[in-house]
Amino acid sequence: MRNFVLLALAQVLIFSQIHLFGYATAAIFTIFLLKLPRHTTKNELMIWGFLFGLVTDMFCNTPGIHSAAATAMAFFRNPVLSAFTHKGLPEDFIPGVKSMKWGGYMIYAVICISIFYILLFALELFSISYLSSLFISAISSTLLTMLFVTVTEFFTPKQ
After folding, report:
1. What is the DSSP string of 32-80?
2. Across the strands, what pairs with 20?
3. Torsion, Cα of 126, 131, 136, 139 (10° steps)
4. Of the candidates 77, 85, 89, 84, which has an alpha carbon nearest to the alpha carbon of residue 47?
5. Residue 150, burial from CB neighbour count under 10 angstroms (0-12, 13-18, 19+)
6. Are 129 and 149 in contact (CB under 8 A)?
7. Nearest to 81 by CA among 118, 116, 33
8. Among residues 62, 111, 44, which one has the least CA distance to residue 84?
9. Cα 115 to the chain's mean position, in Å?
C-alpha cells in the first residue's frame, strides 16, 4: 500500500508533468504492476491497474484513458510473464532482474509497457490519421519508462 501511495504521488506530481520533446512521458506506476507477485490474480491486477489509472486521470484531467490503458496492461501481464518464466515457479515469485535475469525481465517489461502506451495514445489521439505520432509517442514513452524501470532494478535490494 505504501508503494502505491508513493508511486501515485510521484506520478501525478512529477512524472505526468514531464513531456520530453513533446512525445515522451514516463508512467512509473507501471513498475508497481510489473513487480506484483506471480500469484496475484488477474482481477487483483486489473483493480490495481484501474486504481493507478484513475488517480492519474483525476489529477491529470484525462477522461479515463490512463485507467483503460493500465487495466489492459494488467489484464495481459500474467500471460506475458508466463511466456518468460517456466512453469515450476513458487507462488511467491516476484518478477525482477534477480529472478528472471536482465534479458527476460526487460523483454517482459517492454511488452507490458508497450501495451500500456499503445492503448493510451490510441485512446488519446482517437484517430488513425495520427498513426506516426502514436508510434513515436508510444516508442519514446516506452523507452523513457524503461529507463526508470532499469534504474529501479539497480536500487532494488536482493530478495
Report:
1. HHHHS-TT--HHHHHHHHHHHHHHHHHHHT-SSHHHHHHHHHHHHHHHH
2. 24
3. 80
4. 77
5. middle
6. no
7. 33
8. 111
9. 8
User: Cα separation of 74 and 76, whole Å?
Assistant: 5
As a whole-number percent, the residues of the chain with pLDDT over 90 amount to 45
| Residue pointed to by grid coordinates 496475484 | 40
Exposure on the CB side of residue 18, measured as CA atoms within 13 A = 15
Cβ-contact 12, 61 below 8 angstroms:
no
Could you tell me the pTM of the whole model? 0.89
Separation CA 132–CA 93 (nearest Å): 38
Percent of the chain clearing pLDDT 70 (strictly above): 96
Q: How far apart are CA 27 and CA 113, in angstroms?
A: 9
